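Below is a concrete protein record.
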Amino acid sequence: MDNKLKKILLISSSVFIIITIFIFIVFIYQNNRNPYGNELQIVNLNNYTKNKPYNKDVVYFIKHSLYNTVSDNLDKDIKSNSIDDILIRDKTFSQTFTEKNGLHSIKFIIDIQSLKQSYRVSYQWMDNLEWSRDLDEYGTMVTCLDKEEEIIYKDFKCKDGLSGQNIVLDPIVEYLPYSTPNYKITILPDEDKALNVKIYTSSADERIDPDAAILEYKSDVNKWIESIGLDPSEYIIVYEITRASLY
C-alpha cells in the first residue's frame, strides 16, 4: 500500500470518527434537552427522588415552570440552567401515592440564596392516563410562599403565575387534591375560596339510605377541612354526586 492510499484511508477514518462522535453528542443533547424550553435545575432533587417513582416529562415541565417564575421575578430573561444554587429546603420534601387512582404527588420548598428567593414547588402525575382528569389544576406549578413562618427572605416581593390572574393561593391548596373511597376534593378554578367535591355512593348506600349516606359524606368533608386547621364555613362547596348502580 503506497503512502498516498494510506493517507486517504487515515483521513477517511478520522472523518468517520469525528462524524460518529458528533452524532453521538447530538443524540445525547437531544435526549436531555427540555422539550418545554429553558429550564432551571434543582440541585439536590435527585437526592430526594432516587429509587422512587419518577415521571421525566412532568419533571421537565416543572423545571421549565421554575425558569419562567424566576425570570418573572427578576424582570429579565436569564440563561437556561444559569443558577446553580437552587436547593430543596430541609424537611419540606414529601412524596405521596394514592393507590385508588394511581396519583403521585410531590411537594417541597426551594431556596435560592444567590437571589434571595424561595418558592413552593408541587407536581403530580397519574399511573393511568385514563384517570388524568383527576389531576388538580393547581397540582403542578411553582408558587410563592404564603405562610409567614416559611418566608426567610423578607424583602422578596414574590409574584407567580396566579398573581396575574388576581388569584390568591388559598392555604387549602397545599392539601389538595384529597380523596377517600367516598369523595374527592379539588379547588374550584376562577372562584374565591371555592371547592369542588365529588361524592361517590356505594351500592350498599343506594340500597339502604342514599340521602343519609350523602349527608354523612358531606359532614366528613367538613371534618377533614377542620382537621387541617381551616374553617369549612369560609368556603363555597359545590357538590357533584355520582350514584352507584344497583345492577
Summary: Strands lie at 86-88, 94-98, 103-112, 117-126, 141-143, 178-179, 183-187, 194-200, 236-242. The radius of gyration is 25 Å. The first strand starts at residue 86 and ends at 88.
